[in-house]
Amino acid sequence: MVDLLGRAGQLEKAREFIEKMPIKPDCSVWGSLLGACRIHPDAKITELAATSLFELDPQNSGRYILLSNIYTSLGKIEEAHSIRVLMRKRGVKKIAGYTVIELNNKLYKFLVGDCSNPQSDLIYRELERLMDRIKEAGYVPNTNFALHDVEEETQVKSLYMHSEKLAIVFGLINTRPESTIRVHKNLRVCGDCHTATKFISKVTKRKIVMRDSHRFHHFSDGECSCGDYW
């Protein structure tokens, strides 16, 4: 019910539902509410859900990162930075994000800004061309998911080097035009990569399946099966 209300943007009703529950809400309940705040930002309810999660699961780095990203989307850069500081004080380690793609029974792993692949030069050249193509189709980089202590141009470039994009481009280079690209992200896919992948599926006319830590995303012709809620 919390998830359904959250999807509909009824955050206040979701909060009231939680307060009236005959059982004590657990991490999954508060996590659903916090996830809804990512799509429908509400500072007050975001803080309520995050505070409850920090008490129940204080070492889960994903909760801190999500809260920091929500603050950033609301323009609260100082609050977002304070969450990162809180992580360090509590000794919470951010799990390194990576994306894996399997080709010819071999796994290829990409980190952000990865240059370890033998085809790295080709990957980055093709990535630059692909970013130009999706920009022409309407893609606008969301720098809320980039570093915030650098210039905007650097922020955009850092977005381009996310592991999801590198793995997808690697797949585009090394698979047949009619084949489906399948990648696996160990964390929740970031909002900018999700948007970019929708545009990539449209301009390349390729189906892309991405499994992140929350669900499968099936991208086709500029749309995703999750309906932009994950």
UniProtKB/TrEMBL annotation:
Entry keywords, A to Z: Repeat
Gene Ontology BP, a term: RNA modification
Taxonomy, superkingdom: Eukaryota
Gene Ontology terms, MF aspect: RNA binding; zinc ion binding
Domain DYW: 138-230
InterPro entries attached to this UniProt entry: DYW_dom, E2_motif, E_motif, PPR_At4g14850-like_plant, PPR_rpt, TPR-like_helical_dom_sf
Protein's name according to its UniProt entry: PPR repeat
